From TrEMBL:
This is DNA mismatch repair protein MutS-like N-terminal domain-containing protein. Signal peptide: none annotated. The keyword Signal does not apply. One of its GO terms (cellular component) is MutSalpha complex. The keyword Transport does not apply. Residues 1-28, 68-81 have a biased composition (Polar residues). Residues 56-67, 85-106, 127-145 have a biased composition (Basic and acidic residues). Residues 256-371 form the DNA mismatch repair protein MutS-like N-terminal domain. It comes from Graphocephala atropunctata.
Amino acid sequence: MSQNTLFNYFNKNGQANNSPNIKQSTPTTKRKLENVSNNSPNDKKSNLSKTPSTKRKLENGKGKDSTPKSVNGSLKKNTPASKKKKDEIIYKSDSEEGEEIKTPPEKRRRVFEVDSEGDASEDEFVPEEHDVSSDDESLSEHSESEPESASEDGSPVKISQRRNPKSGKNRGDSKKAVSSVTPAKAKLQLFQPSTPSTPRNKENGTLDGGDNNWPHLKYDFVQPNRIKDIKMRPASHPDYDPRTVHVPDDFKQGLTPAMRQWWEMKAKHYDCILFFKVGKFYELYHMDAVIGANELNLLYMKGDFAHTGFPEVAYGKYAAALVERGHKVARVEQVETPDMMGERVKNLTRPTKFDKVVKREICQLTTKGTRVFTVQDGESVDADASYLLALTEKECVGGKSLYGVCFVDTSIATFHLGQFSDDKHCSRLRTLFAHHPPAQILYERGQLSPRTHQVLNTSLTSVLKEHLAPETEFWSSTKTLTTLSERKYFDDGTPDGLKQFLSDSDSLGLTASDEADLAVRALGAVTWYLSRCQLDQQLLSMGQFTLYKPVDHEFALQEEEKPSDVISARHMILDSVTLKNLNVLENSCGGTAGTLLYKLDHCSTPMDCSTSGCAVR
């Protein structure tokens, strides 16, 4: 029995060469047989050169076979045109046996597209115009970032997805699209604001070395050696007001109407950060914008001067962040619409360009001691009270002092007034600061003794302190009661809590008693500051006034009538020094972690919460 080899098989077929149903062998067929029998390294290359046509057949889903295909129930005949085309493909592959595989762009040649004759074109896939254009667009978008991996692994799938455009026009469009791709650095530069500064610092959002180039730093009227308050008093004057600044009129004449509004408000609130309302945004300008960029990581807007901003819905977030850092925030709102502005301008005889702008006013000034948690401000995240405390002093003989205090928690609108004498160590004053830690202190300028200043600077180092001018800002007791009556804060007359501080000899209630004169003066300072913050009507109208007495005041009166060797008090009074050394209310870092108060706040038994907590407080 003869061996079943390809050579014997074709010899047998060669004998039946005269049969009309058997395909005759051609020189190309013999060459193919020789390539199969010889195990040369060029076989893989020749096979790879044939993969594009096979690949396209798989993609088009035609599933072409080597045998003739059945069309309408009859065998497909080999026409001269199809035979000629097959010969061209075979010779094409044979001629490339000794060549290396080209790069993927050269493999995209299509020899089938030039032949529009014959039956072979029926099974060939011809892409539509929109398919080609979409592929070209995707290529242009990713051509610079995606490497071509088809040449590395020889995968035919990657090559099949890249088709040649049908015409030179599409090819030119593709090249144009590739060249129009913007580099990543160029895109980032589009978002860089046009400021006179160097590149932005990634850590804090500021500009590296550019904060010294802003125009507001070069104005003469804000230079430290030339600055004056709104009453033209220099910084060396004893009555200099650092909350205001003088802005020259000739400077304001060259400003835009809106910027003139901003500078007029800034002149009266130089110590505040103005959240200037423009449409649906709050904007910060000049020195306020620099603080916003440094503290809030806001981005500078395009322009020649410092300019930042944020949407109005984020007011509570950004205002609270600045207030916690010790800044004062003034919220500026538009108090008229453009239509109202137009009607107002029509009624003017000779309107100027500064009249053709909507009116804006400061509606609220927020500090650490004047926070009110409205819908716009948001909720409080701190459970402890933040007191605004006013303090005045009168020195007595023997090194003692008489203090008048008034402190208020603006979140609940409760005013505490008190007047007490203290020793030379300021023991009661220190205890007051320990039991009711203030967030902001107001004191009368030039009226505090050196030892009181020492207590404020050592015990309350992180507290915001502000001195007020006598009589004009820190009112007298008579001016305080007169102002309360004229402004009609109380609809039902003087509250009962305030009557105990009035003199019985004055039926009008405009004179304070001798035992409460300093306390009423401290109330006048708080009233002036609340009116500056636009909160006086909101808080004073509640009419909640209480008397503050030092915790040891009643026990001291009882001990004066008894011998010194008798201890009659049922409770021990801890002063501020003891509370600080024992970490009862506050630790050495200023927090509550590890303190007795921190443990009591996390009690889980009813007895601990009811007895221990009440005893400490």
